[in-house]
Every structure is written in C-alpha cells, then in structure tokens.
Amino acid sequence: MVRVYKRSTCCLFIEDQDMFRFSAFSVTSSRLAEPASHITDLDIRPVPNANLKSGEPNIATKVTGEPATMALTVKDHDGRVLTSQTQTGSGSVTFDTMLFDHRNLWSPQTPYLYQLTIEAYDADHQLLEVVPYQFGFRTVELRDDKVIYVNNKRLVINGVNRQMNGTPTPVALSVWLICALISKPC
Q1: Residues 132, 99 contacting (CB under 8 angstroms)
Q2: Lower Cβ count inside 10 Å, N or C end of the chain?
Q3: H-helix or E-strand containing 25?
Q4: What SS3 state is found at 79?
Q5: How distant, in Å, are the alpha carbons of 46, 58, 65, 133, 136 from that of 55?
Q6: Residue 39 and residue 118: Cα distance in Å, rounded?
Q7: DSSP string, 82-124
Q8: Which residues contact 94 (CB under 8 A, 6 or more apart)?
Q9: For residue 41, how many other CB atoms are within 10 A of its CB?
Q10: CA distances from 131 to 5, 59, 66, 71, 94 (A)
C-alpha cells in the first residue's frame, strides 16, 4: 500500500478543487496469485421497466480457470436479502433474470444503491473469491429539447467555483496567488 500526502504551510485546507498535481509519481504493481477460478469481468445492467415501478438486473460474469459455483446475493439498502441464486460454470456465466417489484430508483437527490455479492466456490465448496458491488436502477436520456432527464425528471446540474478563472495557468494556482487569496505575505 502506498500513501501520498501533500503538505502546505498555508492556513487553509488543500481541497480537491485546487487541483494540485502528483508530478512524476508512478506505481508499478503486479498480481502475485489468482485462485483456481477467478472472476475477471462483471456485467450488471439494472434495467427499469417503462413504468419505473419495477426492474430487472441482468447480471453476467466471466470466469477464468476451472469451473466454479457462483453464489449471487442481492440486498437492499437496509441489508435485507432480496434475491439469491447459484450458477455453475466457467467462461461466460449468466444469471437468471430477476424481477424486482416496488424497487427504489437511484437519483442524484436520493442515491439508493443495492448491494450485490458474488461468491466463487470450487468443487469442494471452498470459498475462492468474493466480489461485492453496488448498483442502482435509473434511466438517463437526452431528449430532443437538449435536456438531460433522469427517471423522467429534468436533471438540474449545479456548478461550483473551481478557482480557475483569471489565472495565467488555468489548471494550477501559483504560490503568489494562493498567498494573495489568504492575505498572507509569501
């Protein structure tokens, strides 16, 4: 594990919006081992029905190595199990279609997420791998009036001040400008 800290002598927080860059920082990583059966890809397509009251999560995985038993569990936001099923195979493994009635929609105002867990077991029923993932049901469309709609409601995007206007270098603030902003001599 690598931890990187940026330090400042200024009396203000260094925020994401200040866009300090990590120059010449690179990490070389390699994988040491994989289990006999390994989930290499996960495809989740949560498709709400036209009435936006129910939906179907279409879930498929790609498994390399020996055939494995995949145990899928979907829980709601409160941890209640909504559905579970098991599939066995290698290569492309597609789970049966599941219908969710009265499910919650994801939106920017209420980002409701479901918790998906796929566990891979070998022939001796030894746990090889656990893949957790969160997903939500939503529709996003750009209509003819050039407006983005999420779940048939207009999306209003509120902007933020990125502190990039009026500087000679639009991505980074100079030391002089940072000191001038906090009214401190450099």
Answers
A1: no
A2: N
A3: none
A4: coil
A5: 7, 10, 33, 18, 10
A6: 9
A7: EEEEEEEEEEEEEPPP--EESPPBB-SSSB--EEEEEEEE-TT
A8: 59, 60, 87
A9: 10
A10: 30, 13, 17, 10, 15
Containing 168, the helix (H) or strand (E) segment is: none
Sheet-wide strand order for 140-142: 140-142, 148-150, 153-154
Torsion sign, CA atoms 92, 93, 97, 103: negative
Three-state secondary structure call for residue 17: helix
15, 19, 153, 161 from 174: Cα distances, Å: 15, 12, 42, 17
**Which pair of tokens denotes residue 19?**
């866009």
Furthest CA-CA distance within the chain: 69
What pLDDT is recorded for position 28?
Answer: 62
Quick one: residue 166, left, alpha or beta (phi over 0 = left, psi -120 to 50 = alpha)?
left
Query: How far is it, in rounded angstroms, from Cα 27 to Cα 164?
Result: 29
pLDDT one digit per residue (tens) for the chain, 186 residues = 555 555 544 444 445 544 555 555 555 666 667 788 889 999 999 989 888 888 899 999 999 989 999 999 999 989 999 999 999 998 999 999 888 887 789 988 888 999 999 999 999 999 999 999 999 999 999 998 889 999 999 988 776 555 555 555 556 667 777 777 777 666
Kindly report the length of the chain.
Answer: 186
Looking at the DSSP bridge assignments, the partners of residue 118 are 72, 131
